[in-house]
Amino acid sequence: MIPRITRQSLLPVILLATTGRVLPAQSQPTPPRKSHEVRLLQKKDAVVALGVAGLTIAAMSLDERFAANLQRPSVQTNRTLSGAANVFNNIGFPGAPIISAGLYFAGLSRHSGPLAALGMHTGEAIVLGGVLSEAFAMAIGRARPLHDLRSSRDFQFGKGFSNDDYTSMPSAHVTVAFAAATAISEETGRSWPSAERYVVPLSYSLAGLVGAARMYKNKHWASDVVAAAGLGTYSAVLFDRYNRSRPDNIFNRVFLPASVALSRQGARIDWSIALK
């Protein structure tokens, strides 16, 4: 059964789906888009990575205190907090993939190239972030707080491959949520500048609440959330750079229509899937 997703979590989809640009009718495929000089890896990335690492290490000193406060009986028995945690936990997964797919298919149904691209590029960021977070979590082998609230320093390299209780850092749910928030924010700023001031804070707020929910449910430490936020954001940035520097890449050619021709019988969608 698919968990319920709140109306608030679907607001980015509603805003963009109702404002998506409609592609003009075309009888011929559009010419290949020109590449832009955007480096996939940049010097500032190292500085940002060091900053995230520093924040993660700083948060580790507060991990057990945060966990103990969130697991107090008075907090855990609060129905409002418990219900909210369940909702925002589901926004991370499966909510983020559902939002991505919803944007993509809404774009196709409305003949909107920018909207379909937003959904697909968000999906790319989600997949990359999810794969990286799972790989790191299994390799790092950090014990989850549910294992022991005093085990924040329990790291056993590689143990996560055989025991899910040792896959705490980073949080996959939070990584995916921040990957989606960043991808949506980047694409919105380019295609719908007027919606940016609403979509960006809403997207990142939802991602942050996913992190709070994972801590409330005793699945992750605070530092796991910080590390995941950095990893998810960077995953989206990498794919955004890739798509901007190589707009005619294989993913865009396969999943995005080259043209849409309207007729009395409906619409004909032409795809460019030639390998280069």
Structure report:
The chain has 276 residues and is mainly alpha-helical. The radius of gyration is 20 Å and the shape is globular. Strand 1 and strand 2 (266-271) form a beta hairpin. The relative contact order is 0.18. It has helices at residues 11-17, 43-60, 63-70, 73-76, 79-109, 113-140, 172-191, 193-216, 222-245, 250-255, and strands at residues 257-263, 266-271. The chain folds into two domains: 11-16 and 38-245, no CATH class; 248-276, no CATH class.
For the sheet with most strands, the description reads:
2 strands, antiparallel
For the secondary structure, the number of strands is 2
Ends apart, CA distance between termini = 41 Å
Number of separate domains: 2
Count of alpha/pi helices: 10
Structural class: mainly alpha
Provide the low-confidence segments as ranges.
1-11, 17-35, 259-264, 271-276
Rg (CA only)? 20 Å
Shape: globular
Order of SSEs, N→C?
HHHHHHHHHHEE
Give the structure's gist in a few sentences.
This protein is mainly α. It contains 10 helices and 2 strands; from the N terminus they run H-H-H-H-H-H-H-H-H-H-E-E.
Provide keyphrases for this structure.
single chain; 276 residues; mainly alpha; 2 domains; 10 helices; 2 strands; 62% helix; globular; disordered N terminus
